[in-house]
Write a structure and sequence with these properties.
mainly alpha; Amino acid/polyamine transporter I
């Protein structure tokens, strides 16, 4: 997120002084020269986010969509495979979240970044429309609920600063966490899953170890991978932090809570629902608790879509106005560009949400097409670029060097294999009638069989 060094002019630093109790250590002027938004400006001040608020924003970016889709993926991989996948992908994404830098392949990566978070915004719109349908008992066409979700997401995303979205992140995270907890408790009180036949024998579909087909396994793996892969969205937040050096602290707090919650919630829901878990999972405990959980979780689903759209729009906004005085000035061009980015990308998210209205498929496609290159291949390549001398070092350095080459191969396999599997799954869902035509009134949430 910083300019190349050759474009930077030296800035004299102020005399050093000690930080007094209660003060916040802001970036030094010399460091400020490398930042997107300047702290020393007479225009709009963006860099107001502390590490605690950053960690909550990170939590909200990562948590909502993952926790609603992982129980579905558990059926494809089994409890053991699903748990190992959550732990493995979570650890990898936490590690990769620390690797940033380099303008190489900027345009390709920028395009993937925008597509990724537009698709994520679409998943938020799908989740909201399903929630509105559940609460209203399908009193209106699903497309109209999706349009209402689109409007809410765009309005919230149009708030310019992460510092102002901070309180929404708190409300959104608590909202989704409580909603999921309601479902987790609810499924344990039922004799049989709510979506299963309520009389007679039925196939429960719980497996500690599953033997999925390539298509099912890759789709499930991509779904779990993407649940913690949105760490590239952390970069725009860093650019608005008071002290970017506190980034790692915010990441560790976020990922520790997210991964422990994912593992606990997903395993419990899958244990009690088997293959009858719904997609999104908030409908898994029956009609009454479905309404209760969606009623509580609507704020969180809206904030998720808002943050994803805000991240994508902020990237476009900065790219357009980066070298202009309008970037941090309250001008017509400033506001016109910002609102054009949020509304334009929001419209694209709405169209994609209606074209791929099954929540888990939209999530998995985002993981395979966008986050496999962004969250695995690119950070691995950047590490190799910075540590080329490791291939001639000692055994540990050589292991680290070739391990990062392995990451690039894993990312390539996930990208190609996952995209193929998800697209085949989407085609199969259209052929079987699970997905109706685009912009249809059918509610495409439901049970995984």
């Amino acid at each position: 997120m910083s300019d190349e060094k050759k474009d930077i002019q030296p800035i004299a630093s102020s005399p050093a002084r000690s930080i007094q109790a209660g003060e916040v250590e802001y970036a030094k002027p010399a460091d400020d020269a490398f930042e997107v938004f300047k702290t020393h400006t007479d225009g709009v001040q963006f860099r107001l986010v502390g590490w605690l608020r950053a960690s909550v924003i990170f939590l909200k970016i990562i948590f909502a969509t993952g926790v609603l889709s992982i129980p579905t993926a558990m059926y494809g991989l089994g409890a053991v495979g699903g748990a190992l996948s959550v732990i493995g992908w979570g650890a990898l994404n936490t590690y990769m979240a620390q690797v940033v830098g380099g303008p190489i392949l900027r345009e390709i990566c920028g395009g993937l970044f925008i597509i990724a978070y537009v698709l994520c915004s679409g998943s938020g719109i799908v989740g909201l429309s399903v929630g509105f349908n559940a609460l209203s008992e399908h009193s209106a066409c699903t497309v109209w609920w999706a349009f209402l979700a689109f409007v809410l997401v765009v309005v919230c995303a149009s708030v310019r600063k992460f510092e102002k979205i901070g309180w929404l992140s708190w409300a959104g995270f608590i909202s989704v966490y409580v909603a999921v907890f309601i479902v987790v408790v609810g499924v344990t009180t039922r004799d049989r899953p709510a979506a299963a036949p309520q009389t007679g024998d039925f196939d429960f579909g719980y497996h500690a170890i599953a033997y999925p087909t390539f298509m099912v396994g890759m789709t499930a793996s991509c779904t779990i991978f993407v649940s913690s892969a949105g760490t590239s969205a952390f970069l725009p937040v860093i650019s608005e932090m008071k002290n970017p050096r506190e980034y790692n602290k915010a990441v560790y707090v976020c990922m520790a809570l997210v991964q422990s919650s994912y593992l606990t919630f997903a395993l419990v829901v899958y244990k009690w629902c088997g293959k009858w878990v719904t997609d999104p999972s908030l409908g898994s405990a029956g009609t009454t608790l479905k309404k209760a959980s969606y009623g509580v979780g609507l704020i969180g689903l809206m904030v998720s879509g808002c943050l994803y759209l805000h991240v994508a729009a902020k990237y476009c906004f900065v790219r357009i106005l980066r070298n202009s005085q309008h970037l941090q000035k309250n001008t017509i061009i400033h506001w016109g560009t910002w609102l054009g980015c949020t509304i334009g990308l929001g419209c694209l998210a709405f169209i994609l949400a209606e074209a791929i209205p099954i929540f888990s498929f939209l999530i998995a496609l985002t993981g395979s097409v966008c986050f496999a290159p962004l969250a695995i291949m690119l950070p691995g390549w950047l590490w190799l670029h910075d540590h080329g001398d490791y291939k001639r070092g000692g055994p540990l350095k050589m292991m680290a060097y070739y391990a990062h080459w392995l990451l690039i191969l894993i990312g390539a396999f996930t990208c190609v294999g996952g995209t193929y599997a998800v697209i085949k799954s989407i085609i199969g869902a259209y052929d079987s009638g699970l997905i109706g035509s685009a912009f249809s009134c059918a509610d495409n949430s439901g049970t995984v069989h």
